[in-house]
Structure formats: C-alpha cells, structure tokens
Amino acid sequence: MAVGLACAAALSVAPAQARGPDGIADVAEKVIDAVVNISTTQTIEAKAGPGDGNKGASPQLPPGSPFEEFFDDFFKNRRGGDKGGGPRKTNSLGSGFIVDTAGIAVTNNHVIADADEINIIMNDGTKIKAELVGVDKKTDLAVLKFKPPAKPLVAVKFGDSDKLRLGEWVIAIGNPFSLGGTVTAGIVSARNRDINSGPYDSYIQTDAAINRGNSGGPLFNLDGEVIGVNTLIISPSGGSIGIGFAVPSKTVIGVVDSLRQFGELRRGWLGVRIQQVTDEIAESLNIKPARGALIAGVEEKGPAKPAGIEPGDVVVKFDGKDIKEPKDLSRVVADTAVGKSVDVVIIRKGKEETKQVTLGRLDDGDKPVPASVKSQPEAEKPVTQKALGLDLAGLSKELRAKYKIKDSVKGVLITSVDIGSDAAEKRLAAGDVIVEVAQEAVGNAGDVKKRIEAIKKDGKKSVLLLVSNGDGELRFVALGVQ
C-alpha cells in the first residue's frame, strides 16, 4: 500500500510541474486588461460562384458538436451572409495591446491592412473606434490611437528582448479564433530567427500556442513586460503546432517611437549593395574566418561614397557592433539614427581600415534590385578566348548593342557559359561583364587569363570576379581555378 501511495503522489506532482512556473497566473491577472481585440471592417467585391467557394474555409465538425453552431455563425458572418455578387462587408479579428493610457495601442499591420473601419474591443467588452497612426510593412507593425473610456486604462511596458534566454518561460495573450482573451504559455525556442519574410527578420521563436487571431498580441516575460509581438506561425493546418514567431521588443520599440513621432519610419541608409562572404570569397580576400558583409556596389549619391567605402570592402563592424553576415548590417544600419556619424570597420585587401560615415535616410519605397541573370541570346559568336568555362570577348559597339550594355560599363564580356561549369552554378550568363579579377581591373580577355594563371601559380583554390550586368549593377562571384 505504501508503494502505491508513493507512486500516486509522484504522478500527482508531475502534471503541476508540467504547467510551468507558478507566476504565470499572476502575470496574466496583472496584464490581461491591457490586451485588446482588434476588429476591422472592409468592403470588398464579392466573387459569387457555384456553392460559394468560401465555404471551404469552414471547419468540418461532427453533427451535434457543441462548437458546430458557433463555427457556423462565425464563418457565415465572415462571408457576410450575402450570396449576391455585389459589394459586401467582411469582418476580421486580431489582437493588440495598450502601451499608453492616453489611448495608444500596437498591433500587426496585416491585422488592419486595407480596413475601412478599425475598432478596439477592451477586455470588459467596451468597443471604441480607433484611428491609424502609422504602419511599417517591413516589420509588420501598426500603431493605433483611440479615445480612452471613462474607466482608467491599463498599459504595459516593454522589456529587453536582448536579455531573453533559450528555454525562458513566456506568455502569449490574444484573441485566437475570436474566442476572446486567451492565455497560453511556453518557452523561448530560438532567438534571432530569420525566416526570409522581410529584410529585418530577427524573430523570437516560441512554442507558446499561437493561433489565427493571436496576430498583434503581446508576448510577455514572467515580469509582465512585453518582449515581443506575436506575428505569425508555421502550420500546415492553420492551428498551432508549437512554432510561432514574435517581433522582438527591441525592434518594436524603435518602430513605435518613430511612428508616434513622425507617422512613418525613418531608417538609416548607408547606400551600398551587399552580399554574403562565402568561404570561397573569404579565401580570395584573405579573410579568416569567413564573416562580414561584402560591398558589391556603392550608390553614387549615397553616404558610403564620400566616406571612401568601395566595392570589394568587407564590413566587419558598424558603430561598435560586430557584423557576422549581411543581415546584421541591414538591421543595425536601419536602427541607426539618420544623420548620425558612425565608425565603419572594413577589411580591404586583407587589412582592417576604419571609415567614418554620416548616415542618410532610407527611402522605403525603393526595393533592392537583385543581380540579374540573363538568358543567352542566340546569335553568331564573336571571336573569343576561353577561361573557367567562360567564352570571353572584348566590348565592341556591336556587342554592347547586342547585349544592351551601357557605355559606362567597362570590362570583358561573357558570351557563353559551359553547362555544368562552376560559372554556370554561380549563375553567370552571356551578357554579364567581368570588371575585375582578384580586385584588379581587366580590359580584354587576355587580361582575364593572365590574372587567372597568376592566381593558380600562387596556389589559391578560387578567384574573385567583380561582375556587372548591362545596367552597371555589380556583384562578386568566386570561381574555382584548380
């Protein structure tokens, strides 16, 4: 009997421990009134079709299920109950949280995007019309303002997301599936997660249950501080599978402050195009270990130009912060105040140098132009020389016209690329122009071959090419030479 009682006692303790730390309930009680529902209304043109294709979005529940009526009403309301083909109103619900008792709330941009009307629903059911202060699409954040009700508001404070540790307990509060204020808990699964959703990705990954409707809601630490904004999930089913992502508070604070002050984002701008420093490129530039952001191009009217930064430089430190990869440079430049003078440490020809740059302002309307890849025109080949699986020719007027290459582009033209060569794998193509080989300018095919032979004699495994497209956009490519 004693053994049986001991086992029962052990089993009774395990579930309590599995729930997490005791402080979760205290935090939830403290901050729940600061978490709000965001309700939006949008007028759209209905696309009527046989059977109304929207019905496929409604979950299939067993007849008589206690949730059957709830979900039927929910999805009918989303469709507006209108089977006609005219304009109709559609409603959506998300989450948000109050950061200022004067009536300021934060949510996701995608929660309120294209909305005709935005309302904030308090935890006690009070509904208040809200206005948009500003949005930042690149971090998917939005700031709203509203007239506070007679009852005093509760606002939350931001914590320091940089201090988060892997495995630390966090609490998500939001409005999943329109069920109202819902509390879930989990741990920090990863930090600085880049999922290629935007140029400034640095998400907190958590296994706290986040579902549709949680978007824009806060992620709290056990001190009741907001350390992230729940933004998206990875799920094949649409429900939580324990992989959720939150924008870290460090990013949110800067965005919210800028939107409140200016109604828009004012990000720093360096005026360069950057790319990854691969192992091959690092070997070509005598950089050990591979790190930093390689400068592939410099804007003529950008801040980097007068500071003396050049293509081929590798940025390893910016304003005292280490740069391990290109994303690091993008984030830290964007977070730096416009007009601030900063020290930029670069590696040039194997040696470190420090340049001082006064940052400009990024025009967020500009989109980065990727290095283009041209298809090979079908025409007679000019007299060429061959190297590294490339057919090379001098830039004549005829070839410039044929490949649409600007007069400002100087170098050696690639007229053909061998299939299966390293050059083909690196996406070099006919119409590209080799501007430099191993950081030395080349003017004809003979120059290219001589530089490559010299690289081979030095025992190096790869050679670094500076390549331009017809419009003059530059990128670096490392090719094997052995």
From TrEMBL:
Residues 43-63, 361-380 are annotated as: Disordered. Belongs to the peptidase S1C family. One of its GO terms (molecular function) is serine-type endopeptidase activity. The keyword Iron-sulfur does not apply. InterPro entries: PDZ, PDZ_sf, Pept_S1C_Do, Peptidase_S1_PA, Peptidase_S1C. It comes from Rhodopseudomonas rhenobacensis. The active site is at H110, D140, S215. One of its GO terms (cellular component) is periplasmic space. Residues 1-18 form the signal peptide. Keywords: Hydrolase, Periplasm, Protease, Repeat, Serine protease, Signal, Stress response. This is Probable periplasmic serine endoprotease DegP-like. It is found in: Periplasm. It catalyses: Acts on substrates that are at least partially unfolded. The cleavage site P1 residue is normally between a pair of hydrophobic residues, such as Val-|-Val. Residues 259-350, 372-470 form the PDZ domain. It comes from the Bacteria. Its main location: periplasm.
